[in-house]
């Protein structure tokens, strides 16, 4: 969780300084969801991710140096600097890719799960998406298809309360997005997305169910993004009080406190881990800065696969 | 050799490839027991079962996305769009996902997907079931676009499309389904990006796509009686496009026309015409380049109006005669 937080805070800082080009969507404040969900997966399992994908990527085991290089447009990045923040993929690590199209990854997750079933590969696909995405047609088409074919997918909605400026209060007439699972004949669960253990337990059960061939589930994790939607967002659509309320529910602090309370870790040990994460991010920047930019010849490469 | 229909040729190519490669499967609406809207997959579910001849819900974006996800993870799906018109509903997945995944991910991912799409007018199905939208897809880098004009080409090109590691949009003209040609029983490939000279000629080069190839050959037959020798070239694939065969021909004949069923405005024929104009063949031209395309209207239901909405044999004959007069 610290690695995700420091990575995204660093990205924020570098973006402000003009060291990163394009756009970024930070997941500061919602670190528990990717970490808990990906911890419930095995290495061979796959994820599909979103425009706000740094956390998913890191939690699925990506190398932050290669991620930073990608954001800085270098050839050593995951996509040789051609994808940037919204298109990081790490197929070997089971990350089928971030996505710039809201809801775009849902049917793709269904197809990947279809492969698992048809080739009997026994992997599960965990599909990350936002509350906003669940109002796209692709959400409904994907859930229905996964349900009728009993596919090993876990649909995981990170409900961070906003789709850009659109509040879930304005965009839904239902309290819980997970209730939509009923319409497709699959189990639905609502969890506290800032509670790592709770998210883990529920995802773990859904993953096991999928692995047993019993089909998909829909999980909704209620959480919050601390920062704006992307760059240059004045956050006029919400109050500073609301932000403060959610910051008090910081998932990292909460989980740390719990480890200490239960005698599973000391403050000293947690500080060590935190420092290690910070160092890893600093080293990632050094690696990225030292890496070459693509040559113009590379512009026309990779349009078609060989 | 034996004669089979275009529809049988498409089915035979799919079946033969599926016997060889377990990763190939078909998905689409009503393709199972029903056999697909045009009967192309008829009988396939009996041989391959419902896993590999997979009926889907009516959800074009979902089907396309699922096909992409399967392709990305090691399968080689063939997706059947019931009518090519519904590509508009699958457009996000095809244009924003399938076409770009390889590039966005720095060449580290491939989407070996075939989208079969019955296209074209002539069935009276009117404006939402009769379009030729190939230019939309040919515009997008990352997609390949194929338009077989006869049963022989359909079988060989489909084999290549399935073998290709990229998303390939495979247009089948509905009126061609029942047309017959000599087709070898064994599986064979016709490379993507290789035009075919369907008839040699010396006076004018006529490039035609899809069903317009048949119409152009009929027109060439009529014109031959007047002593006009027409060379008919079928590019077979719009992307990749074999412009060299076309340019070489124009250099020999000195005259050039292109005919396609899609709406003339912004159609792919304009692209081919521009490429010829930009090429070394320009200096050999003895007459202005001519484009024949569909009228700028949605396809109407009324058969007489429908016939007039797209180029017919007599339109091609007239256009070629005009070119010859100008020379
Ligand atoms: C199809 C589509 N529509 C709109 C956008 C612009 N857009 C990007 S992110 C976003 C909000 C998405 O909200 P949500 O799914 O809740 O994810 P979050 O940003 O909250 O993580 C919007 C509207 C887009 N990228 N794709």
TrEMBL record, chain A:
<keyword id="KW-0786">Thiamine pyrophosphate</keyword>
<dbReference type="InterPro" id="IPR029061">
    <property type="entry name" value="THDP-binding"/>
</dbReference>
<feature type="domain" description="Dehydrogenase E1 component">
    <location>
        <begin position="3"/>
        <end position="296"/>
    </location>
</feature>
<dbReference type="InterPro" id="IPR050642">
    <property type="entry name" value="PDH_E1_Alpha_Subunit"/>
</dbReference>
<dbReference type="InterPro" id="IPR001017">
    <property type="entry name" value="DH_E1"/>
</dbReference>
<keyword id="KW-0560">Oxidoreductase</keyword>
<protein>
    <submittedName>
        <fullName>Thiamine pyrophosphate-dependent dehydrogenase E1 component subunit alpha</fullName>
    </submittedName>
</protein>
<dbReference type="Pfam" id="PF00676">
    <property type="entry name" value="E1_dh"/>
</dbReference>
TrEMBL record, chain B:
<dbReference type="Pfam" id="PF02779">
    <property type="entry name" value="Transket_pyr"/>
</dbReference>
<keyword id="KW-0560">Oxidoreductase</keyword>
<dbReference type="InterPro" id="IPR009014">
    <property type="entry name" value="Transketo_C/PFOR_II"/>
</dbReference>
<keyword id="KW-0786">Thiamine pyrophosphate</keyword>
<dbReference type="GO" id="GO:0016491">
    <property type="term" value="F:oxidoreductase activity"/>
</dbReference>
<dbReference type="InterPro" id="IPR005475">
    <property type="entry name" value="Transketolase-like_Pyr-bd"/>
</dbReference>
<feature type="domain" description="Transketolase-like pyrimidine-binding">
    <location>
        <begin position="4"/>
        <end position="179"/>
    </location>
</feature>
<dbReference type="InterPro" id="IPR033248">
    <property type="entry name" value="Transketolase_C"/>
</dbReference>
<dbReference type="InterPro" id="IPR029061">
    <property type="entry name" value="THDP-binding"/>
</dbReference>
<protein>
    <submittedName>
        <fullName>Alpha-ketoacid dehydrogenase subunit beta</fullName>
        <ecNumber>1.2.4.-</ecNumber>
    </submittedName>
</protein>
<dbReference type="Pfam" id="PF02780">
    <property type="entry name" value="Transketolase_C"/>
</dbReference>
């Amino acid at each position: 969780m610290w690695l995700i937080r420091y990575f995204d805070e660093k990205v924020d800082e570098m973006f402000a300084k003009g060291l990163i080009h394009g756009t970024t969507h930070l997941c500061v404040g919602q670190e528990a969801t990717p970490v808990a969900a990906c911890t419930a997966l095995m290495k061979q399992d796959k994820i599909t991710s979103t425009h706000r994908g740094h956390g998913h990527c890191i939690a699925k085991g990506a190398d932050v140096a290669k991620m930073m290089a990608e954001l800085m447009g270098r050839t050593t990045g995951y996509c040789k600097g051609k994808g940037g923040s919204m298109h990081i993929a790490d197929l070997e690590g089971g990350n089928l890719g971030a996505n710039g199209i809201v809801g775009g990854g849902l049917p793709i997750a269904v197809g990947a799960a279809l492969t698992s079933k048809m080739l009997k590969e026994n992997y599960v696909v965990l599909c990350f998406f936002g509350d906003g995405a669940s109002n796209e047609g692709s959400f409904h088409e994907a859930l229905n298809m996964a349900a009728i074919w009993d596919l090993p997918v876990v649909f995981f909605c990170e409900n961070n309360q906003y789709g850009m400026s659109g509040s879930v209060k304005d965009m839904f007439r239902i309290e819980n997005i997970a209730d939509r699972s009923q319409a497709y004949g699959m189990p639905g669960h609502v969890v506290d997305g800032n509670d790592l253990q709770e998210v883990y337990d529920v995802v773990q059960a859904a993953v096991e169910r999928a692995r047993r061939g019993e089909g998909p589930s829909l999980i909704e994790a209620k959480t919050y993004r601390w920062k704006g939607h992307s760059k240059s967002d004045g956050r006029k659509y919400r109050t500073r009080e609301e932000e403060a309320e959610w910051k008090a529910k910081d998932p990292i602090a909460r989980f740390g406190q719990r480890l200490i309370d239960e005698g599973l870790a000391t403050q000293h040990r947690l500080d060590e881990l935190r420092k290690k994460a910070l160092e890893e991010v600093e080293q990632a920047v050094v690696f990225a800065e030292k890496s070459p930019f693509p040559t113009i010849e590379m512009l026309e490469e990779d349009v078609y696969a060989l | 050799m034996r004669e089979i229909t275009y529809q049988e040729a498409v089915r035979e190519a799919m079946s033969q490839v599926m016997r060889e490669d377990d990763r190939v499967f078909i998905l689409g609406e009503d393709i199972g027991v029903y056999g697909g809207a045009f009967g192309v997959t008829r009988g396939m579910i009996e041989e391959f079962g419902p896993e590999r001849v997979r009926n889907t819900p009516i959800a074009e974006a979902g089907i396309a996305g699922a096909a992409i996800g399967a392709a990305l993870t090691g399968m080689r799906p063939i997706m059947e769009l019931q009518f090519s018109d519904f590509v508009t509903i699958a457009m996000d997945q095809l244009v924003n996902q399938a076409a770009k995944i390889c590039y966005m991910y720095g060449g580290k991912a491939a989407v070996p997907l075939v989208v079969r799409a019955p296209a074209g007018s002539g069935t009276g199905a009117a404006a939402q079931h009769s379009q030729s939208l190939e230019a939309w897809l040919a515009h997008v880098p990352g997609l390949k676009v194929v338009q077989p004009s006869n049963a022989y080409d359909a079988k060989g090109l489909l084999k290549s499309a399935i073998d290709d590691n990229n998303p390939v949009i495979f247009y089948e003209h509905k009126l061609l389904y029942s047309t017959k040609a000599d087709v070898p029983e064994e599986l064979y490939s016709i490379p993507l990006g290789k035009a075919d000279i369907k008839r040699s000629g010396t006076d004018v080069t006529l490039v035609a796509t899809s069903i317009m190839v048949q119409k152009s050959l009929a027109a060439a037959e009529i014109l031959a009686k007047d002593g006009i020798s027409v060379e008919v070239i079928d590019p077979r694939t719009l992307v990749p496009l074999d412009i060299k065969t076309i340019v070489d021909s124009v250099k020999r004949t000195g005259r050039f026309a292109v005919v396609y069923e899609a709406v003339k405005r912004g159609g792919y024929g304009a692209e081919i015409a521009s490429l010829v104009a930009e090429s070394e063949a320009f200096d050999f031209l003895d007459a202005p380049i001519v484009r024949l395309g569909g009228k700028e209207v949605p396809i109407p239901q009324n058969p007489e109006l429908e016939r007039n909405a797209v180029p017919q044999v007599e339109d091609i004959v007239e256009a070629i005669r005009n070119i010859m007069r100008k020379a």
